[in-house]
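Lab notebook, bench 4. We co-purified these components, and the gel suggests they stay together. Before we commit to crystallization screens, I want a quick structural picture of the whole thing.
Request: model the full complex, all chains together.
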Amino acid sequence: MFSAPHSTCRHCGEPIPTASTGGAQFCCAGCHAAYDMIEGLGLDSYYQRRCLDPDQPTLKPDEDEVRFDFDAYTETDSEGLSALHLMVEGLQCAACVWLIETVLKKQPGVRHARINMTTRRLVLKWDGALARAEDLAHAVTQLGYRLAPYDPSLISAETERHEKQLLRAMVVAGFAAGNVMLFSVSVWAGFTQGMGEYTRGLMHWLSALIALPAIAYSARPFFRSAIGALKVGRTNMDVPISLAVILASTMSLVETIRMSDHVYFDSAISLVFFLLIGRYLDSRARGRARSAGENLMGLRARAVTILWEDGTHEIAPPEKLKPGMRFLVAAGERIAADGHVVSGESDIDTQLINGESVPERALTNTPVFAGTLNLSGPLTVEVTATGEDTLLSEIVRLMEAAEDARAKYVALADRVSRYYAPVVHTLALGAFLGWWLGAGSPWQDALMVSIAVLIITCPCALGLAVPAVQVVAGGRLLQRGILMKAGTALERLATADVCVFDKTGTLTQGQPQWTNAHAIGEDDKLLAASLAVASKHPLSRALCRNVLGAVLAKGVEEIPGSGLRLKTPDGEVRLGRREWCGVEAKDESAEAELWLARPNAAPVRFAFTDQVRIDAAATVAELKRQGFKVLLLSGDRASAVEAAARDAGIDDWHSALTPADKVARLQDLAGLGHCVMMIGDGLNDAPALAAAHVSLSPASAADISQTVADIVFQGNKLAPILEALLVAKRADHLIKQNFALSFVYNALTVPLALAGMVTPLIAAIAMSTSSLVVISNSLRLSIGAGFSFKRPSVVKPVQEQQA
Amino acid sequence: MTVLIYLIPIALVLGLAALFAFLWSLKSGQYEDMEGAANRILFDDEPSHENQRKIETDDNERDNP
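Here is the predicted assembly.
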């Protein structure tokens, strides 16, 4: 069933380079192996079912995958099975879930393998030894998915429990509302057809029987929140809601006992039901983004290899490290504590800490920091600071302090209710006093009018005005790969007027790109690439990406911290640092460089720069057009920042800033009355992200930055920022419209209620229609085009052609 | 109106039955992965080469009888 040559890889869908290590059908050997494995297990129907999403990372098996110590995360469950909790990265659609589960279930001994598609978590259980975790995980990583173990106990069960409770309350309220309405309709029909007094009484009693317990149960979320607010001497939207529900129920009970006809059980319970719908949707809309954040929090630092003085090794959790101890860091591992290098030579990727895109060289005595990545050679590090004292923790503290300041923001809905609630209470009280003392009615009738006022003004529509829009906005953004994490993110985004970018990884792609390819001869390129294939250094990889058909030369040796060398009959060929290749001349025009030195020829220079994202200039131009002041704040060197600022079209740039400097700049801007939108990705940006009015992070950002950011966007482009802005502006508009609609409705119905002309039927109808109007208005957000320079296309299921 | 005497209890019992069915399904974790549940129904239990071939032949026969 093999077909004519494909131009894209049969496994991952990437274009196939001309001389692929995976043969004519695959882009690399890894993809070929993955395809063989899938076909060998008889699962090749996977390729027909799946949909590849161009915005997701590709399925190309990662050659230099970060090795987790899976065994350390494995535990034995109550049934004696070994269990492992993993987070799966790279899921594209349901077919991926099916593939992973089936592949795992075909491994001997596996009893349970199930992925929760919503939270992207995999639970894996098998018979026998804990130590098989590595093999089982490898079966999945081989397919191109990435796995990370997490600790389920670190993921808060609190919010999940809360959401379940809301759902249960909503269903109980819905059940009761439906049944009570059934009796109410009979009563209303009875008005015209002459229902007997006792039959009506029976209907009312039945309604009370259903509605009272249901209200007592379902309205607890409102009561709790209202009591909470009253305790601290404030009032919120839940206070009038609770008051209306309680008063309406008690009064209806009294009326039922008196065999009178002013019974509002149906209004009370459907009010609770409608509001719970709003609450539940609101909580669910944020659930997905929240679980993404929680997944990140669940990732613990991995185990470290401690080197004891007697020369023995011990694999232990990083908490065991104490200053003065020594530990080993293998190539490809993150460093667990601050310290300095005792022995070994390597390159350290410090992007997470200072935003520098080109690795630093590490030699004996070079200080290294927790969270940085060791790239090329093994190191022995002596600890100088651990846990709370590391630079990493310092940044986290700075971030938390900034976050506290932002927590003071009050959501629009709460601001509205601050003014609304007292007005409603005054009106209701006024109606009661007016009818009782003013018009001389019996106090029961006066109370009835005042309850009618409460029910009519009851912020049913108001309670839905914000959540309904947010649910629609969140769903729409999610489709474009934008996760809204904070409930008030859109509100704050809509008011932003200054846009601050970080450089590395945000404005730029975060990895060096080879810039002088045109100036170098084909032979030199091929020779350099044949050495570079052997290395995982970012510069080598950038070089290989751009040379098609590079084949690894036999006998290449990597000298960590210096470069690569190859012994040939003519002499030694070297690819690496300037000094190591014996070049004297200095040229600082590029961010990074590699030199190729050969016997009997002049050395060749390869220049690399971290280039700005494809649509960075267009995005910045559009932001400026929309009236934003655009700034670039970076921790990188001035020359690199200037180049990126020029390419992106930003005039106002600042370089060599520490995380604290960035926060200070943002606070200055805030002091001038600006609302700052901060877009950053590095750990060094985390405090600034927390300090900004609203913050965005690309999905490639450091875990902690994603955790503090209000909005996380996926993909390699910056256009999602504009999409988020567009949706935020429209959502803001719609929310205000919804409030206006609710007020208009109140202005029309409150006089009726004050005049005592509202019957239970009118109250029920008026309330439902206002809610429906608000919901339908909110749904308008989902129609209409999104923001685009040009619309991205989604690749539909890959249909294999049959030969 | 005597019909109400048994119609009302029947209506209530039916409603309650549905309510309890829902609460049970909530408790047994059926709402934990809505997205997965929607897709899982489309998964084959044990897809094999034979099945795959059979489906393909069936399709061919249908297309060119």
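Residues 295-301, 790-803 of chain A have pLDDT under 50 and may be disordered. Worth comparing against the SEC data before the next meeting. The longest helix of chain A spans residues 158-193.
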